[in-house]
Protein backbone atom coordinates (compact mmCIF):
# COMPACT_ATOMS: atom_id res chain seq x y z
CA UNK A 1 0.00 0.00 0.00
CA UNK A 2 1.44 3.43 -1.02
CA UNK A 3 2.05 6.11 1.61
CA UNK A 4 -0.08 9.25 1.53
CA UNK A 5 0.64 12.66 2.96
CA UNK A 6 -1.74 15.49 3.86
CA UNK A 7 -1.31 18.37 6.28
CA UNK A 8 -3.53 21.43 6.86
CA UNK A 9 -1.98 24.60 8.33
CA UNK A 10 -4.17 27.41 9.71
CA UNK A 11 -2.74 30.71 8.50
CA UNK A 12 -5.68 32.97 9.47
CA UNK A 13 -9.22 32.65 10.75
CA UNK A 14 -11.06 30.38 8.34
CA UNK A 15 -8.03 30.20 5.98
CA UNK A 16 -5.96 27.02 5.65
CA UNK A 17 -2.89 26.07 3.64
CA UNK A 18 -3.26 22.43 2.54
CA UNK A 19 -0.18 20.32 1.75
CA UNK A 20 -0.29 16.91 0.05
CA UNK A 21 1.73 14.69 -2.28
CA UNK A 22 -0.08 16.25 -5.24
CA UNK A 23 0.84 19.83 -4.35
CA UNK A 24 -0.20 22.90 -2.39
CA UNK A 25 -3.71 24.28 -1.98
CA UNK A 26 -5.59 27.02 -0.18
CA UNK A 27 -9.10 26.92 1.28
CA UNK A 28 -11.40 29.43 2.97
CA UNK A 29 -14.53 28.88 5.08
CA UNK A 30 -15.77 27.29 8.27
CA UNK A 31 -17.45 24.16 9.54
CA UNK A 32 -19.81 22.68 6.99
CA UNK A 33 -18.67 24.66 3.95
CA UNK A 34 -15.34 25.63 2.42
CA UNK A 35 -14.12 26.85 -0.96
CA UNK A 36 -10.61 26.31 -2.16
CA UNK A 37 -8.07 25.74 -4.88
CA UNK A 38 -5.69 22.84 -5.16
CA UNK A 39 -3.71 20.80 -7.69
CA UNK A 40 -6.98 19.62 -9.30
CA UNK A 41 -8.51 23.11 -9.58
CA UNK A 42 -11.12 25.16 -7.70
CA UNK A 43 -13.68 23.34 -5.58
CA UNK A 44 -16.34 23.58 -2.88
CA UNK A 45 -16.43 21.23 0.09
CA UNK A 46 -19.65 20.58 2.01
CA UNK A 47 -19.79 18.48 5.18
CA UNK A 48 -22.01 17.54 8.09
CA UNK A 49 -20.02 18.41 11.24
CA UNK A 50 -19.46 15.53 13.60
CA UNK A 51 -20.46 12.80 11.13
CA UNK A 52 -17.37 12.50 8.96
CA UNK A 53 -19.57 12.84 5.85
CA UNK A 54 -18.47 15.35 3.21
CA UNK A 55 -18.69 16.06 -0.48
CA UNK A 56 -16.24 17.81 -2.83
CA UNK A 57 -17.28 19.36 -6.16
CA UNK A 58 -14.69 20.65 -8.62
CA UNK A 59 -15.52 23.47 -11.02
CA UNK A 60 -15.48 22.68 -14.75
CA UNK A 61 -15.33 18.90 -14.42
CA UNK A 62 -17.36 16.42 -16.47
CA UNK A 63 -18.79 19.00 -18.82
CA UNK A 64 -20.14 17.51 -22.03
CA UNK A 65 -18.85 18.78 -25.36
CA UNK A 66 -21.10 20.78 -27.58
CA UNK A 67 -19.95 19.04 -30.71
CA UNK A 68 -18.79 15.49 -31.43
CA UNK A 69 -15.23 14.84 -32.50
CA UNK A 70 -14.56 14.38 -36.19
CA UNK A 71 -15.66 10.91 -37.30
CA UNK A 72 -12.82 8.47 -37.89
CA UNK A 73 -14.85 5.79 -39.67
CA UNK A 74 -13.03 5.30 -42.95
CA UNK A 75 -15.67 2.96 -44.36
CA UNK A 76 -17.79 6.02 -45.16
CA UNK A 77 -17.04 9.23 -47.01
CA UNK A 78 -15.14 11.75 -44.86
CA UNK A 79 -17.75 13.94 -43.20
CA UNK A 80 -17.58 17.61 -42.32
CA UNK A 81 -20.38 17.64 -39.75
CA UNK A 82 -18.08 16.46 -36.95
CA UNK A 83 -16.68 19.85 -36.04
CA UNK A 84 -14.33 19.77 -33.07
CA UNK A 85 -15.23 23.03 -31.41
CA UNK A 86 -13.73 22.92 -27.99
CA UNK A 87 -11.90 26.17 -27.32
CA UNK A 88 -8.65 26.05 -29.33
CA UNK A 89 -5.71 25.25 -27.01
CA UNK A 90 -4.00 28.46 -28.14
CA UNK A 91 -6.95 30.43 -26.72
CA UNK A 92 -7.81 28.36 -23.69
CA UNK A 93 -7.00 30.22 -20.49
CA UNK A 94 -4.60 28.43 -18.22
CA UNK A 95 -6.57 26.28 -15.80
CA UNK A 96 -4.75 27.76 -12.82
CA UNK A 97 -5.91 31.28 -13.74
CA UNK A 98 -9.46 30.07 -14.27
CA UNK A 99 -9.40 28.33 -10.90
CA UNK A 100 -7.92 31.37 -9.19
CA UNK A 101 -10.63 33.56 -10.73
CA UNK A 102 -13.35 31.24 -9.38
CA UNK A 103 -11.71 31.17 -5.96
CA UNK A 104 -11.32 34.95 -5.91
CA UNK A 105 -15.02 35.44 -6.66
CA UNK A 106 -16.11 32.89 -4.07
CA UNK A 107 -13.89 34.41 -1.39
CA UNK A 108 -15.28 37.86 -2.23
CA UNK A 109 -18.85 36.57 -1.81
CA UNK A 110 -17.96 35.02 1.56
CA UNK A 111 -16.41 38.28 2.75
CA UNK A 112 -19.68 40.06 1.97
CA UNK A 113 -21.02 38.23 5.03
CA UNK A 114 -17.84 38.52 7.12
CA UNK A 115 -16.58 42.03 6.32
CA UNK A 116 -18.55 43.55 3.49
CA UNK A 117 -16.05 46.30 2.40
CA UNK A 118 -13.47 43.63 1.51
CA UNK A 119 -16.11 41.58 -0.28
CA UNK A 120 -17.26 44.52 -2.42
CA UNK A 121 -13.66 45.45 -3.22
CA UNK A 122 -12.95 41.88 -4.31
CA UNK A 123 -15.97 41.82 -6.62
CA UNK A 124 -15.03 45.20 -8.14
CA UNK A 125 -11.51 43.93 -8.83
CA UNK A 126 -12.99 40.78 -10.41
CA UNK A 127 -15.25 42.84 -12.70
CA UNK A 128 -12.37 45.13 -13.70
CA UNK A 129 -10.14 42.15 -14.47
CA UNK A 130 -12.89 40.49 -16.52
CA UNK A 131 -13.47 43.69 -18.53
CA UNK A 132 -9.76 44.07 -19.21
CA UNK A 133 -9.52 40.43 -20.31
CA UNK A 134 -12.51 40.81 -22.67
CA UNK A 135 -10.86 43.77 -24.42
CA UNK A 136 -7.47 42.10 -24.77
CA UNK A 137 -6.48 40.45 -28.10
CA UNK A 138 -7.07 37.02 -26.56
CA UNK A 139 -10.48 38.13 -25.24
CA UNK A 140 -11.51 39.44 -28.66
CA UNK A 141 -10.33 36.25 -30.35
CA UNK A 142 -12.35 34.17 -27.87
CA UNK A 143 -15.44 36.27 -28.56
CA UNK A 144 -15.13 35.74 -32.34
CA UNK A 145 -14.64 32.01 -31.77
CA UNK A 146 -17.77 31.77 -29.60
CA UNK A 147 -19.78 33.73 -32.17
CA UNK A 148 -18.58 31.32 -34.84
CA UNK A 149 -19.58 28.37 -32.70
CA UNK A 150 -23.09 29.81 -32.24
CA UNK A 151 -23.35 30.34 -36.00
CA UNK A 152 -22.44 26.71 -36.59
CA UNK A 153 -25.14 25.57 -34.20
CA UNK A 154 -27.62 27.56 -36.29
CA UNK A 155 -26.27 26.21 -39.58
CA UNK A 156 -25.03 29.67 -40.62
CA UNK A 157 -21.90 28.42 -42.39
CA UNK A 158 -20.82 31.71 -43.97
CA UNK A 159 -21.21 33.58 -40.68
CA UNK A 160 -19.23 30.90 -38.85
CA UNK A 161 -16.44 31.13 -41.43
CA UNK A 162 -16.27 34.91 -41.13
CA UNK A 163 -15.99 34.74 -37.33
CA UNK A 164 -13.26 32.09 -37.44
CA UNK A 165 -11.28 34.12 -39.96
CA UNK A 166 -11.55 37.10 -37.58
CA UNK A 167 -10.03 34.92 -34.87
CA UNK A 168 -6.99 34.43 -37.12
CA UNK A 169 -6.84 38.16 -37.83
CA UNK A 170 -6.44 38.76 -34.10
CA UNK A 171 -4.11 35.81 -33.55
CA UNK A 172 -2.70 34.18 -36.72
CA UNK A 173 -0.99 31.44 -34.69
CA UNK A 174 -4.16 29.54 -33.80
CA UNK A 175 -3.22 26.65 -36.07
CA UNK A 176 -5.81 24.21 -34.72
CA UNK A 177 -8.60 26.38 -36.17
CA UNK A 178 -7.37 25.83 -39.75
CA UNK A 179 -9.16 22.49 -39.70
CA UNK A 180 -12.62 23.93 -39.06
CA UNK A 181 -12.06 26.72 -41.60
CA UNK A 182 -11.10 24.12 -44.22
CA UNK A 183 -14.27 22.13 -43.53
CA UNK A 184 -16.38 25.29 -43.82
CA UNK A 185 -14.82 26.23 -47.15
CA UNK A 186 -15.60 22.73 -48.40
CA UNK A 187 -19.16 23.06 -47.11
CA UNK A 188 -19.44 26.35 -49.03
CA UNK A 189 -18.17 24.73 -52.27
CA UNK A 190 -14.81 26.48 -52.30
CA UNK A 191 -12.39 23.52 -52.64
CA UNK A 192 -9.38 25.71 -53.48
CA UNK A 193 -9.55 27.54 -50.15
CA UNK A 194 -10.40 24.30 -48.35
CA UNK A 195 -7.24 22.71 -49.74
CA UNK A 196 -5.16 25.69 -48.63
CA UNK A 197 -6.36 25.49 -45.03
CA UNK A 198 -6.10 21.70 -44.85
CA UNK A 199 -2.49 22.09 -45.91
CA UNK A 200 -1.87 24.75 -43.26
CA UNK A 201 -3.40 22.53 -40.61
CA UNK A 202 -1.27 19.53 -41.61
CA UNK A 203 1.87 21.65 -41.36
CA UNK A 204 1.24 21.79 -37.60
CA UNK A 205 -0.47 18.40 -37.23
CA UNK A 206 1.21 16.14 -39.83
CA UNK A 207 0.04 12.88 -38.25
CA UNK A 208 -3.70 13.56 -38.48
CA UNK A 209 -4.67 10.78 -40.89
CA UNK A 210 -8.34 11.79 -40.99
CA UNK A 211 -7.46 15.25 -42.28
CA UNK A 212 -4.98 13.77 -44.76
CA UNK A 213 -7.82 11.77 -46.27
CA UNK A 214 -10.07 14.84 -46.43
CA UNK A 215 -7.21 16.84 -47.94
CA UNK A 216 -6.60 14.18 -50.62
CA UNK A 217 -10.32 14.21 -51.47
CA UNK A 218 -10.23 17.99 -51.98
CA UNK A 219 -7.05 17.74 -54.07
CA UNK A 220 -8.89 15.31 -56.32
CA UNK A 221 -11.74 17.79 -56.77
CA UNK A 222 -9.24 20.50 -57.75
CA UNK A 223 -7.54 18.03 -60.15
CA UNK A 224 -4.26 17.98 -58.23
CA UNK A 225 -4.11 14.24 -58.74
CA UNK A 226 -0.37 13.70 -58.26
CA UNK A 227 -0.44 15.45 -54.89
CA UNK A 228 -3.58 13.56 -53.85
CA UNK A 229 -1.88 10.24 -54.65
CA UNK A 230 1.19 11.26 -52.64
CA UNK A 231 -0.96 12.07 -49.61
CA UNK A 232 -2.99 8.86 -49.87
CA UNK A 233 0.11 6.72 -50.18
CA UNK A 234 1.47 8.26 -46.96
CA UNK A 235 -1.50 7.00 -44.91
CA UNK A 236 -1.01 4.18 -42.37
CA UNK A 237 -1.03 0.68 -43.97
CA UNK A 238 -4.20 -0.45 -42.17
CA UNK A 239 -6.04 2.67 -43.37
CA UNK A 240 -5.12 2.03 -47.00
CA UNK A 241 -7.32 -1.07 -46.91
CA UNK A 242 -10.45 0.98 -46.23
CA UNK A 243 -12.87 1.33 -49.14
CA UNK A 244 -13.00 5.12 -48.97
CA UNK A 245 -9.21 5.30 -49.44
CA UNK A 246 -9.30 2.77 -52.29
CA UNK A 247 -12.01 4.77 -54.05
CA UNK A 248 -10.20 8.09 -53.61
CA UNK A 249 -6.92 6.67 -54.89
CA UNK A 250 -8.57 4.98 -57.88
CA UNK A 251 -10.35 8.24 -58.76
CA UNK A 252 -6.99 10.04 -58.80
CA UNK A 253 -5.46 7.48 -61.17
CA UNK A 254 -8.49 7.73 -63.46
CA UNK A 255 -8.09 11.52 -63.37
CA UNK A 256 -4.53 11.00 -64.67
CA UNK A 257 -5.94 8.72 -67.43
CA UNK A 258 -4.20 5.67 -65.97
CA UNK A 259 -7.00 3.06 -65.79
CA UNK A 260 -4.51 0.20 -65.47
CA UNK A 261 -3.25 1.65 -62.17
CA UNK A 262 -6.81 2.38 -61.06
CA UNK A 263 -7.70 -1.29 -61.68
CA UNK A 264 -4.72 -2.42 -59.62
CA UNK A 265 -5.98 -0.32 -56.72
CA UNK A 266 -9.62 -1.39 -57.10
CA UNK A 267 -8.69 -5.06 -57.13
CA UNK A 268 -7.76 -4.61 -53.47
CA UNK A 269 -11.42 -3.80 -52.72
CA UNK A 270 -14.20 -6.14 -51.53
CA UNK A 271 -14.00 -9.60 -53.08
CA UNK A 272 -17.58 -10.49 -52.11
CA UNK A 273 -20.80 -8.63 -52.77
CA UNK A 274 -22.22 -6.92 -49.71
CA UNK A 275 -25.82 -7.56 -48.75
CA UNK A 276 -26.44 -3.82 -48.68
CA UNK A 277 -24.82 -1.36 -51.04
CA UNK A 278 -23.89 1.87 -49.26
CA UNK A 279 -22.61 4.97 -51.01
CA UNK A 280 -18.99 3.89 -50.89
CA UNK A 281 -19.84 0.51 -52.38
CA UNK A 282 -21.83 2.17 -55.16
CA UNK A 283 -18.86 4.42 -55.88
CA UNK A 284 -16.51 1.43 -55.85
CA UNK A 285 -18.60 -0.41 -58.44
CA UNK A 286 -19.01 2.75 -60.52
CA UNK A 287 -15.24 3.35 -60.59
CA UNK A 288 -14.67 -0.32 -61.41
CA UNK A 289 -17.16 -0.07 -64.28
CA UNK A 290 -15.52 3.10 -65.63
CA UNK A 291 -12.10 1.47 -65.36
CA UNK A 292 -13.23 -1.63 -67.27
CA UNK A 293 -14.81 0.62 -69.92
CA UNK A 294 -11.56 2.56 -70.34
CA UNK A 295 -9.67 -0.70 -70.72
CA UNK A 296 -12.15 -1.95 -73.36
CA UNK A 297 -13.63 -4.70 -71.17
CA UNK A 298 -17.23 -3.68 -71.79
CA UNK A 299 -18.90 -6.87 -70.54
CA UNK A 300 -17.25 -6.48 -67.13
CA UNK A 301 -18.20 -2.79 -67.11
CA UNK A 302 -21.84 -3.60 -67.90
CA UNK A 303 -21.94 -6.11 -65.03
CA UNK A 304 -20.82 -3.46 -62.52
CA UNK A 305 -23.22 -0.81 -63.84
CA UNK A 306 -26.17 -3.23 -63.64
CA UNK A 307 -25.38 -3.99 -60.00
CA UNK A 308 -25.62 -0.27 -59.26
CA UNK A 309 -28.74 0.21 -61.39
CA UNK A 310 -30.62 -2.49 -59.46
CA UNK A 311 -29.96 -0.55 -56.25
CA UNK A 312 -30.24 3.02 -57.54
CA UNK A 313 -31.58 3.75 -61.04
CA UNK A 314 -30.59 7.42 -60.78
CA UNK A 315 -27.00 6.97 -59.66
CA UNK A 316 -24.65 9.29 -61.54
CA UNK A 317 -24.82 8.54 -65.30
CA UNK A 318 -25.22 4.77 -64.94
CA UNK A 319 -28.38 4.73 -67.06
CA UNK A 320 -26.64 6.52 -69.94
CA UNK A 321 -23.61 4.24 -69.69
CA UNK A 322 -25.80 1.13 -69.88
CA UNK A 323 -27.60 2.51 -72.94
CA UNK A 324 -24.22 3.16 -74.55
CA UNK A 325 -22.69 -0.22 -73.76
CA UNK A 326 -25.67 -2.61 -73.85
CA UNK A 327 -28.01 -2.41 -76.87
CA UNK A 328 -30.53 -4.62 -75.05
CA UNK A 329 -30.86 -2.24 -72.12
CA UNK A 330 -34.37 -0.78 -72.10
CA UNK A 331 -34.12 1.60 -69.13
Automatic annotation (TrEMBL):
The chain crosses the membrane at residues 96-129. It comes from Moorella mulderi DSM 14980. One of its GO terms (biological process) is proteolysis. TPR repeats lie at residues 141-174, 175-208. Residues 3-54 form the DUF4236 domain. This is Beta-barrel assembly-enhancing protease. GO terms for molecular function: peptidase activity. The keyword Repeat applies. It holds the Pfam family DUF4236. It comes from the Bacteria. Keywords: Hydrolase, Membrane, Protease, Repeat, TPR repeat, Transmembrane, Transmembrane helix.
